[in-house]
Design brief:
Two copies of one chain form a homodimer.
Chain A (H helix, E strand, L loop, with lengths): L10 E7 L3 E8 L4 E8 L5 H17 L6 E8 L2 E2 L6 E4 L4 E4 L1 H9 L3 E5 H12 L8 E6 L3 E7 L2 E2 L30 H5 L1 H13 L5 H5 L9 H9 L3 H25 L3 E5 L1 H4 L2 H14 L2 H4 L3 E4 L6 H11 L1
Amino acid sequence: LATDFIAPPAYALGIDLGGTNARAAVVDANGRIVSSAKRRLDERSPAAVVEAIAAAAQSALDAAPGVAVKACGVGAAGQLRGDTGVVAVAPNLGWREVPLGGLLSKRLARPVRVVNDLKAAAWGEKRAGAALGERDVYTVFVGSGVGSAVIANGQLVLGATGVAGELGHVKMVPGGRRCGCGEDGCLEAYAGGHNLIAQMREAIEAKVATALMTRIDGDLSLLTAAVLEEVAAAGDPVAVRIYEQAVAFLGQAIANQVTVLNPARLILGGGVLLHSPRTYDRIVQGVGLFAARVSREGLKISPAALGDDSGLIGAALLAID
Amino acid sequence: LATDFIAPPAYALGIDLGGTNARAAVVDANGRIVSSAKRRLDERSPAAVVEAIAAAAQSALDAAPGVAVKACGVGAAGQLRGDTGVVAVAPNLGWREVPLGGLLSKRLARPVRVVNDLKAAAWGEKRAGAALGERDVYTVFVGSGVGSAVIANGQLVLGATGVAGELGHVKMVPGGRRCGCGEDGCLEAYAGGHNLIAQMREAIEAKVATALMTRIDGDLSLLTAAVLEEVAAAGDPVAVRIYEQAVAFLGQAIANQVTVLNPARLILGGGVLLHSPRTYDRIVQGVGLFAARVSREGLKISPAALGDDSGLIGAALLAID
């Protein structure tokens, strides 16, 4: 029969593994989510997390009856050992050297590919989001940390040991502010969300006069990147100093990557950027000022389009592609 | 006959087009030069340059009788329009928008691929030199200018418009020293050979007391990067300032690319680096200090191995590959 020769539609399971939840979705080859489910990670041992993922996956599969799902892709918040499926470090889970791909592949009885969550999200944007159809894409995420992912010649760049894209740890100030990674002067130490909050705390704890203190009514737990931006916009010198430093360094560092990578499209995502049109605009302006003219000409810049689903979708598509 | 099934050895013509000479070589699929020839570029019109290339190519071909050469690759000192064969700008030749690939393909009656000379050289090193067998390679050249080439997933990264690798124009100091490209604060404005000489001249012309003046016996034309290094090593404050600034910025900028690209191997080439073991060592030290630990672990660093032939060899191999 002629229909024998029509390839069945391809589906994959996409998993987004954060520090708090495991999400699973059945995704088609165009990046559409057919069904999805979520499980809280109450316990963080590898065995417990694998069970939580398996439960979420089963719920998603149950909600998509009749769909044949052959492969599974995982985007994990952590540092991977190349394409081996081993999570070298996942700070949010307290993991070191966990062979997640192998464990999950056995549990799900399917081939499993594990990539870093930002790389999965960037791949989702490339295949089904803001960079659809582009071959050369640079994606930057500014949230609690700062990260990026490189797509060149239509392929995700993992790097020799799987850690390509560590934009948060380029050095802006040799010997500068101490970063959570233990090194000094990293971009993330000035511009990551956690460090924006830390810098505000430090100023307040050093008794520097600042409108930040009145804005939060003395409750340090209310300090956020959004509060910083608001108080900086009102002209408070402490907030202005921290905020301006962050956007200046982000603009310069991202521009320098645009100069070297010459992407067709730059995608800006992550909580700090997506929830602040002003910060987004300042980064775009910085790239315009500092990227080399030849790499800037024709560059398209856009916000990430898939929101929280980009990692789920990208992980599934990486398993299909 | 069984021998019908043995593929004939593949050969290609490699062309290295600089500002002064056109070199041609017949190169085999392993990157070995079978024969080569050179022509001076007395006239720099596109037609005259195409004739000079054709003459060099014919000499190389005549010296390799019985070898079937099907394709031709050109490494050109200039900025290319992607993979179209059009040279957008070649400052040394005074060219703008010259369709070199088309002109040369007609003249040589062979398919011709044109890439930037540094990309060709990097490909030569990857296929037959210091990065043999590596999939992820970052190559930096410090000569009169500063440039680089990215190889990721085993492929040369051209970028969306063919200008990937412009390391010389990453911004080290927003609003800093004016660069030859017209922008401010570029790495090349501090660390390229032309700019090292320009900075020494500026100090001398500003009548700043410096041992550089006595070292060259008043003849400004004797200023070179090697003289700078020598006088800096002897402790002259002006030379120390210029030299230390250059190596610090080179170390930081290269380290930041290692952080983002996570190459298996970093190759350092170009006249300023290859003729100065001390400068080479300082850059290696800078990468060790400033690259993120996860990208630095396992990174191999080596000098370019093919010397002046890397571009010829790489251009030919790009036509074969």
